[in-house]
């Protein structure tokens, strides 16, 4: 059963680390584009004559559509060279940003954001498992960290810079700047990404087969639990810092910047460690996501306590993307694109469910009730990683006994 991206093919790039960096810039571009409205929601709403709640569709719509488009892109791409797909998606991202910058109405803007969702699903599904095709095996962990480092970098640099451009030049120029940047990333891809021919083509049947893969099933459940837990709480990080930790509003940006820096550190640590011991890495991350809401409730009632919790939070969540993707690649080493597409779908469903459920719980039970529920989801993820690790250890012990005593 050969799939469209086989990790056993080995590196194919003449300048592998430049190619890896280019893919990392692609993830930076798509995540920055995805999250750009976060810092521009009010001016977008004012210009288009809509409420802030309606304007939030510019964030939730592409996230949900990415969950649908990720497997569709992999299936529809068939045997097409993955370099061409990436470049094509980056070209569409340029168009989506230009269309957003020119949007005269909500309908136009949402149409552009639908295109962003298509690009998100495709780029993540293709880029997520490219490390093994670009660098030698011993460097896959670091290369995967660089590729997923685009997520943390988008939070630390991309979204704040977009908000800054929007403040001084208007929100349309923020999208126009992102269109220019995405165009430069496309040019870099054309120059340094090698040909990445498909080994085969994914089918609906093969997707269904992988859904029956027990190890992949565990990874998808972990993705839903971890991501939903995080976004259930993180959606309300501003009111938490203000009402619980007592920060003035003008400190929120600094706290989020510190969180983002910690996230970048967590991303690279997890990428390196997960390559050697994936289960233990995800166990540590789950524990960090469990401790975050508990510490907010017990020790976050001061500036120092709130700042310390934010650093722990960034460190823990920063490793989620690369840790889970490493799990997926190991669960389906000969079906990496399918695993990545399913992972992208679960990840974005987790974002949507976590944010929506968090809103409902916060309205009904307050911020404390929301944090306890987030804690419960993280605890479930921790128990699942521990149970899976125990099961694997028992299987290894049984295999050793069988080998030493063949009967």
UniProtKB/TrEMBL annotation:
Residues 17-393 form the Major facilitator superfamily (MFS) profile domain. It comes from the Bacteria. It is a multi-pass membrane protein. The keyword Membrane applies. CDD domains: MFS_NepI_like. PROSITE patterns: MFS. InterPro entries: MFS (IPR011701), MFS_dom (IPR020846), MFS_Efflux_Transporters (IPR050189), MFS_trans_sf (IPR036259). The chain crosses the membrane at residues 57-78, 85-108, 114-135, 142-165, 171-196, 216-237, 249-270, 282-301, 307-328, 340-359, 371-390. Keywords: Cell membrane, Membrane, Transmembrane, Transmembrane helix. This is MFS family arabinose efflux permease.
């Amino acid at each position: 059963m050969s799939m469209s991206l086989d990790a056993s093919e080995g590196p194919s790039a003449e300048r592998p680390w430049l190619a890896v960096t280019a893919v990392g810039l692609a993830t930076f571009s798509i995540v920055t584009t995805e999250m750009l409205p976060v810092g521009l929601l009010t001016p977008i709403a004012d210009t288009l004559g809509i409420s802030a709640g309606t304007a939030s569709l510019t964030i939730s719509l592409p996230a949900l559509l990415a969950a649908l488009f990720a497997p569709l892109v992999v299936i529809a791409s068939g045997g097409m060279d993955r370099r061409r797909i990436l470049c094509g998606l980056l070209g569409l991202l340029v168009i989506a940003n230009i269309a957003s910058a020119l949007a005269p109405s909500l309908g136009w803007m949402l149409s552009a954001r639908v295109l962003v969702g298509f690009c998100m699903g495709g780029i993540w599904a293709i880029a997520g498992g490219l490390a093994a095709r670009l660098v030698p095996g011993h460097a896959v962990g670091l290369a995967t960290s660089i590729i997923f480092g685009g997520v943390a970098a988008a939070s630390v640099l991309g979204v704040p810079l977009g908000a800054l451009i929007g403040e001084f030049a208007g929100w349309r120029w923020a999208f126009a700047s992102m269109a220019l940047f995405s165009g430069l990333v496309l040019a870099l891809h054309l120059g340094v990404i090698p040909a990445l021919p498909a080994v085969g083509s994914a089918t609906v049947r093969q997707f269904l087969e992988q859904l029956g893969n027990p190890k992949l099933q565990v990874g998808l459940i972990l993705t839903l639990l971890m991501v939903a837990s995080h976004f259930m709480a993180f959606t309300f990080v501003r009111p938490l810092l203000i009402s619980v930790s007592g920060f003035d509003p003008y400190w929120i940006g600094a706290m989020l910047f510190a969180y983002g820096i910690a996230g970048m550190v967590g991303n690279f640590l997890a990428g390196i460690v997960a390559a050697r011991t994936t289960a233990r890495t995800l166990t540590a991350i789950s524990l960090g996501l469990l401790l975050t809401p508990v510490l907010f409730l017990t020790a976050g009632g001061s500036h120092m306590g709130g700042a310390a919790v934010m650093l722990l939070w960034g460190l823990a969540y920063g490793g989620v993307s690369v840790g889970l993707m490493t799990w997926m690649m190991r669960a389906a080493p000969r079906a990496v694109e399918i695993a990545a597409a399913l992972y992208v779908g679960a990840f974005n469903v987790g974002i949507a469910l976590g944010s929506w459920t968090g809103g409902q719980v916060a309205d009904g039970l307050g911020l404390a009730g929301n944090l306890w529920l987030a804690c419960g989801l993280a605890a479930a993820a921790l128990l699942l990683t521990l149970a899976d690790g125990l099961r694997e250890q028992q299987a290894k012990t049984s295999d050793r006994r069988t080998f030493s005593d063949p009967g």
